[in-house]
Amino acid sequence: MRRSFLFFLVIILLFIGFEPLFAEDGQVIVLNRTGYDIFYLCISPESSDSWGEDLLGEASFLPDGSQATVTVPGLPDTCVFDLKAVDLDDDTYFKWGLNLCESTKIVITINDLLVDQENLVGTGEIQDFILVNDTGFIIWHIYISPDYSDNWEEDLLGSSDILQHGEEFPITFTGYEDHCIFDIKLVDEEGDEYIKYGVDLCSLYEVIFTLDDLVY
């Protein structure tokens, strides 16, 4: 019975819980986690010699911690793109060789800051996301493991932190390279568990837990 329920839950998540990996209309989601507001954003094909137009428009900017949906010229006919962003202090951020046919999410972080013309530091991890507690209860533990693992990894909240109802918790990754599929488990103040299986974190920028995720 438990296996049947879990299988049914996975099917529901696959069909209604996720955004598509690749938008036929050329739209992608850009998430700003640089710590600064961005006022210029351009995404151009890797083969192009010019950056093209500002996708934020003349009167718009992208505040730190927010996201914007932009239409990328040339997508999906072309898949691989480069990104350039400029913040309000005129600092420049670059991401190179983005395959937008595989993921519609781009996360810009402080790691993408151009240090100097000869030294570019690495990019942020594509699996990074924001977890939202909409369960109605206080969360005491958060566990995330790749789908191929038989064990839950360490508690991301630790022993001295909690996640109140309505709060957000940013989660970052290291060491998983291009692996996308993860399982996520929350445990609330009463010991009840909330689980999402088979979450594609390469295509999501936010994961919301509700009472529907409660394991009975």
Following the backbone from N to C, one meets helices and strands in this order, namely HEEEEEEEEEEEEEE
Note the main sheet: 3 strands, mixed
Mean pLDDT: 83
N- to C-terminal distance = 11 Å
- The 3D shape can be described as elongated
Tell me the number of structural domains: 2
Instruction: Output the structural class.
Output: mainly beta
CATH architecture of the largest domain: Sandwich
Helical content band: under 10%
Contiguous helical run count: 1
Question: Which assembly state applies to the chains in this document?
Answer: single chain
Kindly provide the radius of gyration, computed on alpha-carbon positions and rounded to a whole number of angstroms.
19 Å
By CATH, the topology of the largest domain is Immunoglobulin-like
Instruction: Note the beta-strand portion.
Output: 35-45%
Number of strands: 14
Uncertain segments of ≥5 residues (pLDDT<50)?
1-23, 116-123
* CATH domain class name of the largest domain: Mainly Beta
Report on the architecture of this protein.
The protein folds into 2 domains: 27-120, Immunoglobulin-like, CATH 2.60.40; 127-213, Sandwich (Immunoglobulin-like). The protein contains 1 helix and 14 strands; from the N terminus they run αββββββββββββββ. It has one helix spanning 2-17; strands spanning 27-33, 38-45, 67-71, 80-87, 92-99, 105-109, 114-116, 119-120, 129-133, 139-146, 168-171, 181-188, 193-200, 206-209. The strands form 5 sheets. A 3-stranded mixed sheet has the order 3-1-6, with no helix packed on it. Residues 1-23 and 116-123 have low confidence and may be disordered.
